[in-house]
Amino acid sequence: DAKTTQPNSMESNEEEPVHLPCNHSTISGTDYIHWYRQLPSQGPEYVIHGLTSNVNNRMASLAIAEDRKSSTLILHRATLRDAAVYYCILINAGGTSYGKLTFGQGTILTVHP
Amino acid sequence: SQTIHQWPATLVQPVGSPLSLECTVEGTSNPNLYWYRQAAGRGLQLLFYSVGIGQISSEVPQNLSASRPQDRQFILSSKKLLLSDSGFYLCAWGQGLHSPLHFGNGTRLTVT
Q1: pLDDT tens digits for A26-71?
Q2: Taking CB atoms and an 8 Å limit, are B46 and A97 in contact across chains?
Q3: Which of A64, A76, B29, B93 has the highest Cβ tally under 10 A?
Q4: Range with the lowest mean pLDDT among A34-38, A62-66, B4-8, B40-44?
């Protein structure tokens, strides 16, 4: 599976936008970019995913670079409840991936009041 | 709507004792099912996945096993627990090759 690289940690203030970067320079044409987040003592929660075009949902936006070698998860107005570990994961739509997720270390997001 | 149930929430077991963790999914049929483990302060590790009844694939060799006796039931077992089996065990389901995974609330296992 292609590898992703994320910063170990980021900080933000409440009510401000947060841009969480992810590099995936070896991404293949059939790799989907998924984002999950994990709050303390809880299971991971799906946030958003995309293939080539930017995506928006009620939780966040996903901006994908034109060459697809990087992407950015955007939280438009951070709240204290957004403090979590954010994981950027690639899932190959073909082959024998069967939707398996390979989690890296993720980015620890701290939100200050 | 779909829901996933995982129990128990916490478990303390002595070394050498057996283990059985159960996960059930409601509101969907023929899901892909997964067991993950997260050691303290570390990332998630995929243990087993299943694409159908009786079909189990193991990702990491160890003293754990998994079974899928029914379409929406996934069980993680061990005959004899080791100290290193302590961790946060998470069950998840998904539909399709690149659809999102939905996780349960997890079982925190402490082996003493």
Answers
A1: 998 888 999 999 998 899 999 999 999 999 999 999 999 999 999 9
A2: no
A3: B93
A4: B40-44
Residues in chain A within 8 Å Cβ distance of B43: 103-106
User: Amino acid identity, residue A70?
Assistant: S
Can you tell me the distance from the alpha carbon of B14 to that of B75, in angstroms, rounded to the nearest whole number?
A: 20
Pair B5, B61: CB distance under 8 Å: no
Chain A nearest CA to B29, separation (Å): 16
Give the count of beta carbons closer than 10 Å to the beta carbon of residue B96.
11
Neighbours of A7 (CB within 10 A): 14
Token readout for A22 is 């992810």
Asked if A94 contacts B39 with a C-beta cutoff of 8 angstroms, the reply is no
Q: Do the chains contact at A42 and B105, CB–CB below 8 Å?
A: yes
pLDDT band with cut points at 50, 70 and 90 for residue A1:
low
Question: Confidence class of residue A93 from pLDDT cuts 50, 70 and 90?
Answer: confident
pLDDT at position B40 is 79
* DSSP per-residue string spanning B80-110: S--GGG-EEEEEEEE-SSSSPPEE---EEEE
Residues of A in contact with B51 (CB under 8 A): 98
